[in-house]
Design brief:
It is built from one helix and twelve strands. The protein is an alpha+beta fold. The longest helix is centred in the N-terminal third of the chain and has 24 residues, at 4-27. The model is unreliable at 14-44 (pLDDT under 50).
Length: 203
């Protein structure tokens, strides 16, 4: 069985490979004609990135101190977006998915990531629970083998992607986050930091 340090290195290499593959797919759609993968043209510049993912927030093995709940009091998987820009980012009409080739969830107009700030999305597949800025996506995270989270623009062009590995057998699930915020390689952290900087939690 791989050691914890070995698994971290493995998932970091896999995350970089997935990002490169996604970028290659997006670039392969240059021009006006839609490709078979659904990507059209080059990815646009955007200051928003997938900053943190906690797919097993609903796992009973996670200490309660690591949990947060949605407006209904449920422990749902969540995705955090971060805006490194100096203007608010309005993502209404953009798409997210747990599949790099198939956008699944169209973001509503309420998804506005403040300049230098964060926005949390719940990935439990239950869109009936969406209320105001408490947004629930139409796909679910929570695989013990890991999850892919992808951000697309309004034309379904690939923008960003994060791979969140599942825990080793018998280990407590942890969040995966960019260190530093917005630019770093995703790594597993000792403590999830929803709607906050990852600085204090990165190992």
């Amino acid at each position: 069985m791989r050691s914890r340090a070995s698994q971290q290195r493995h998932w970091r290499r896999q995350s970089r490979a997935i990002l490169l593959a996604g970028a290659t797919l997006a670039l392969s759609g240059c021009g006006d004609e839609e490709t078979s993968s659904g990507f059209i043209g080059q990815p646009i510049e955007l200051s928003v990135t997938i900053n943190e993912v906690f797919a097993l927030n609903n796992d009973p093995g996670v200490p309660l101190s690591n949990h947060i709940t949605d407006a209904s009091g449920e422990f749902a998987p969540w995705i955090e977006l971060y805006n490194a820009g100096d203007e608010d980012a309005h993502l209404g009409g953009y798409w997210m998915s747990n599949d790099s080739r198939h956008p699944k969830a169209k973001l509503p107009d309420e998804v506005v990531v403040p300049a230098g700030g964060f926005f949390l999305l719940w990935a439990d597949g239950d869109t009936t629970e969406t209320d105001g800025d408490d947004i629930h996506l139409g796909f679910e995270l929570g695989s013990t083998r890991g999850d892919t989270v992808v951000l697309f623009d309004f034309e379904k062009k690939w923008l960003d992607q994060m791979w969140a590995a599942g825990p080793l057998p018998g280990e407590t699930p942890e969040a995966w986050a960019r260190c530093p915020d917005g630019t770093g390689t995703p790594t597993n952290t000792g403590m999830p930091t929803p709607r906050k900087t990852n600085e204090s939690s990165c190992l």
